[in-house]
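name: query_chain
kind: protein
chains: 1
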Amino acid sequence: MTLAIFLFISIILLGIQTAIPFLVKRTIIFGITVPEKHIKNEQLISYKKRYTLLVSLLSLVALGIYAFWVLGTNPGEEQTVLVGTLIQFGIILFSLSLYFFFHGKTLQLKRKNNWMENLKQMKVTDLSVRSQDEMIPWYLFLLPMIVTVGVIGYTVFQYDLLPEKIPTHWGINGEADAFTEKTPMSAILMPLTLLAMQVMYLGIHIGKNKSGIKLSATGTNASKLRQLTLRKYSSWLMFLVSFLLTGLFCYFQLTTIHPDLFAGTAMIAAPMVFLVVILAATIVFAVKVGRSDKHSVVASEEEITDYDEDSYWKGGLFYFNRNDPSIFVEKRVGVGWTLNFANPLGYIIFLVPLVVVIVLSLL
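structure:
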């Protein structure tokens, strides 16, 4: 079971990592802004293919060796989990290393051929786009928080039913494998941690809602569709994660109060259902956004191009722009959002809940 779970997660991870160059905005290649008329450059296409081939081949070899090792030597669950986790991190690190390699190659190619020379860089704004935005309303994120507060109240009311050892960690089979002494704080630590995470999700959602909608000068309609798709489905994905995480945490909290309430296959099924639904939703989100601007009419005015913001992106991963009031912007690697590290509000959204979680765990 452990092997199957890790292989399932790793294959999904592998699929996402190999598809990264084909899911980002079409004018962004390995984190570099490329003028519309050069995005089908043979050298750039070969970079994408080489990246995908190398990541997929090495990852599949590593997963094959991992599967044969588990089936042949029958290691303990802890060893299986440890090695499986290391392989997953290895896939991410290898793909990231390749990304940086081709990021440098793309930047070098762009500068060598002077692709931005004689092109007029433009920024496009459409004030009507906001009226088409379908992000879910912020107050829906209050619903999971209400459930969590209710579970905290129920835990306080049922404090005497709690065991003397409070579970703090659950294994891959859904059974508790780490415990702490029963105290008023340890009894509600898990739902309090969940509440802090829910506050963070709410803050991120509001920050994304307030962020600017950036359009392309050479493909305005396509970029508009991508931005609206990104905003809509990312808001639903985050709400789904918050909702399912609330269900999972509350499930574990209730099993602590009432050990006989859930038993047997339910202990294994709950984490598995959570994992499968989240992975499936993530894939749907990535595909929906990644394909949203791929079938479009390219502008005929070849003398214009999008404004080159490469100088604001460090390695194509980290965005620093003090002139941009947006808290979050679309990623240049993968599908989703990243923080504008020059906007202090972003640090507040992330750090305050994180500090709360750390302080709670130390009490």
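note: The first helix runs from residue 2 to 23.
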